[in-house]
Amino acid sequence: MVDSTSATAAKPGHHGKVIAASVSAAVGAFLFGFDSAVINGAVDALGSHFQLQAFLKGFAVAIALLGCAVGAWYAGQLADRIGRKKVMVLGAVLFFASSLGAGLAVSVWDLMFWRVIGGLGIGIASVISPAYISEVAPARMRGALTSIHQLAITIGIFAALLSDDVLQRSAGGPSAALWFGEPAWRWMFIVGVVPSVVYGILAVLIPESPRYLVRARKDDEARRVLRVVVGEPDPDSKVSEIRESLHEEDRTSFADIAGPRFGLKPLVWVGICLAVLQQFVGINAIFYYSTTLWHSVGFSTAQSFETSVITAIINVVLTFVAIIWVDRFGRRRLLLVGSVGMLVGLGLASVSFFHQIGSGDKVSLPEPWGFVALVGANLFVIFFAATWGPVVWVLLGEMFPNSMRAYALAIGASANWIANFIVSFSFPYLAQNVGLGYIYGAYAAFAIISFFFVLTKIPETKGQELEHMQGETHARRRRTEATAGPA
Question: What percentage of the chain exceeds 70 in pLDDT?
Fold first, then answer.
């Protein structure tokens, strides 16, 4: 067995190449964030344009997430067949088509079709980006580099909200005519073609994953990537180590994640619950609906867009904190701190919204509750961005042994998208019929659940090589083979 320290001690001169490849792959995560938030500024305008009630409005916003779940499920299997790079290009093409199609939609059903197409592309990116980065990054840099995935998501969210604000200001409102007589909300979707083209070009230029190259029996190319890009001091040994782990992986199937608890192994359920809790704290109720949210409690249209942009900036800045801390303090500790911080922020928001006065289009939060709601919502974003946002994706990319990683990651990512759909679809209806105070109180309850879940169920994976991850199936098979001896 190769010593993990020496095997992963990448030369300092190669750090820039690894970082460049990771950043290029993370442009897919930028599209993920952009698509997640671009609907924010358009939702009220397209609701008026297509005369949508709360139920259908929520469905039009959230339906892309069903496509994301499907894309996430098949991404890993497709990447093993045709390579990580080609799958990234496919994701870029799908998002390009979605951006153009949604911007030119003539009916709500047309819009929802293109949103699903984009969802397929974003679901692919949500799996391939962290998987690719974890496969090219040395263990001691993997947490920070995989966190680039979440950073790119936050930058995509910021870019979408900023472009929404610029476009609606230029037109005089999201429903007002802009270029070629088309309303600003259409251009909010169409600008997505730019990052999709950039992503496609970068996907062609980056090196292929060494793990895929070994799987495809392109050992010489894998050694070259490990030596030139990763800075691996002993590429021959690393290729042998990857081949051994792939041998174990290739001997597995979906049956290897099967277990006694509702058909799945306990570790798989841990990944599913982790992915679901990341969404059930309600982060995308803010990033999909923040403009609508603040407008509904008395903010002007301009103030609502400005507040959404400020929240997105906070999201970006605090994600840098996670990148700095994730390999220093570990995954579990950050998640525990994040759960406490999110609880405080969500609690403040919940209490504030219970003081909402008025009804219909004439509602407001009296002082000081408007300020308290802003502080609570942004405090929640601060702790989410610094902890649960990036760390969950880091863990999902590395917590499973090779014997189950592909299937378990696909299930975890799909569960994340389905949970995202549930939150996003239900928010407009619940906000109108239940009340914001109760909604944010429920999100706070899930923050409490997340704390105890991490405390009791989440393993620490800091500093471990992917090839050295040991799970129940893998360890049992090794013990069996060692006992049986040679055939």
Answer: 85
